[in-house]
Every structure is written in C-alpha cells, then in structure tokens.
Design brief:
CATH architecture: Alpha-Beta Barrel
Structural class: alpha/beta
Low-confidence stretches: none
CATH topology: TIM Barrel
Oligomer: single chain
Helix content: 40-55%
Largest sheet: 8 strands, parallel
Number of strands: 10
Number of helices: 11
Shape: globular
CATH superfamily: Phosphoenolpyruvate-binding domains
C-alpha cells in the first residue's frame, strides 16, 4: 500500500516509464474498486461515463464540483494512484482553472487528463499551453508532482487535412510539454504506423485510446506506446449488459442475464465495504 500522495505521484510517473500502463477507466467507486481488485496498477476516470451517471452528455458539460467530489471518494476507496479525466478544466480562464486544480489535488489525486477541445472546437495550441502552465504552477504550489496527461484531439475529431494531422499533433505536443505536461494523449489513432511515428517524435510517454477495432495492448506496446486507456468503452459494455438484462426481463420475463458474467452481490458489497474506511492520504 502506498503511504502518501507523494509516493503515489512518484509511482504513477514510474508506471509510464517502465512498460505500458493499462487503464480500463472507472466512473464510480464500485468500478474503481473492481479495477483495483482485478489488478490495475492505477485507477483513472472516464469523463463520458461520469457525465452519463449525472444525466449529462459528454463534452465539457459537467462542473468541477461533482468531479472533484467523486475523485475524493475514489481516492479514499483505493490504494493505487488515481488520475482524473478533468476534461477542459471546467473554467474559461487560467485563474479559475488553477483554483480547480488546487481543489482537485487536495483530494489526493496524482494525475489528470486535460484536453484541448471545447464545446466550440479546439483551442489554439498557444492558449492550451498557457492553461497547462497554469495547471503545473498550481500543482507545484500545492507541492504535488501531478502527472499532466495533455490530450490533443486532432486525430479524434479529424481536424484539418489528413496529411497535416501528424505535424499538428507533434507541434502541439512539443508546446504542451514545454508548458509543463508530463505525457501526451492522442485519441483517435488506430494505425500502428502512425502511433509509432508519434512515439518517435514526441519526447514523453504517449497514451492511446483503445476499444473495439483497436490494435492490442501488446501491439501498441511494441511500437513504444506507454499508456493505453479504454476511455468510456468499459462503461459502455456495462451499460450494454444492463440493456440486454432489461430487454430480457421486460420481454421474456426470464433471467439468463443474471448468470452471464455478473459480479455477485456479496463479492461487490464486500469489495466496496472493504475499502470504505480507506483514508487515501
């Protein structure tokens, strides 16, 4: 068990330096403790599934307070490092962003994702770099070695001409790293050749988003990717199972779904109860 936030922060950085960190992404305390029990070396949240749980669509529609509250609950429940998908930072200006970061790291969180997408499009690289610098300064002021996973959505949203996306991603990565990012997250890449080029050009750990149709973790690891995240895919699979259960229950009135890979009541209750007294400090 890691004894302090500083220890967990160092461990989280180390997990990006040796091998490939695999994150299934959690959206509540129960999914977080299941991830830890299954052997995950860290827990990271998914903004999409957290938003869905609050009755909101994904895409910077949440506010900071419930995200920070959930982060605190997860940190208390697990012993491994916790990273939070902080979307765009939940503030338009850098002062508000810095304040949110101070509140977030006070929960014991040691990593964040910070994306360059807004509801209106993608931020100019220079503006996003200034926001990353504000995050870094706020974390340092709090005495936390925060892992800032800077996400750029050039590939995910198909921004610009296809033959220019690599150069723009590399340009943004360099600016974000200079501003204080720890790693670069490039969702939307399923081509191993592109992933390998990005890894070679970006002087920091590179994170890829995985799910149906993606190369395997092993294949991504072989081209040098240091972190793979399932994002909302695991939550979507869980919701899919729930939908199938409801369909069967209300149409056939049968319960085959209850025997198909469920985590039984006692196991799940014990997992949550077993971590409910953790301090996470």
């Amino acid at each position: 068990m890691t004894s302090s936030q500083a220890d967990r922060a160092d461990l989280f950085h180390d997990l990006h330096a040796d091998g490939t960190l695999v994150l299934a992404n959690a959206w509540d305390v129960a999914s977080a403790v299941i991830a830890q029990d299954a052997g995950s070396k860290a827990v990271a949240t998914t903004s999409a599934a957290v938003a869905w749980a609050y009755g909101l669509p994904d895409g910077n529609q949440m506010s900071a307070a419930p995200v920070i509250d959930l982060a605190e609950r997860i940190v208390r429940a697990v012993d491994v490092p916790v990273s939070v998908d902080f979307e765009g930072g939940f503030a338009d200006d850098t002062d508000g962003l810095a304040a949110n970061i101070r509140d977030l790291v006070a929960t014991g969180v040691v990593g964040i994702n910070l994306e360059d997408t807004t509801p209106d499009g993608i931020r100019p690289a220079e503006e996003q770099a200034s926001r990353i610098a504000a995050v870094r300064a706020a974390a340092e002021e709090a005495g936390v070695r925060l892992y800032v996973n800077a996400r750029t959505d050039i590939y995910l949203w198909g921004i610009g001409e296809e033959d220019g996306r690599y150069d723009e991603t590399v340009r943004r990565a360099a600016a974000y790293l200079e501003a204080g990012a720890s790693g670069i997250f490039v969702p939307g890449v399923a081509d191993l050749a592109v992933a390998e080029r990005l890894v070679a050009a970006i002087e920091a750990p590179v994170n890829m988003l995985v799910g149906a149709g993606s190369p395997s973790v092993k294949e991504f690891a072989e081209v040098g990717v240091r972190r793979v995240s399932a994002g909302s895919a695991a939550a979507s699979a869980a919701y899919g199972q729930y939908r199938r259960a409801v369909d069967e229950l209300v149409t056939a009135g049968t319960y085959a779904w209850a025997e198909q890979g469920s985590v039984d009541y006692g196991t799940l209750n014990a997992l949550v109860e077993g971590h409910s007294s953790s301090t996470g400090s």
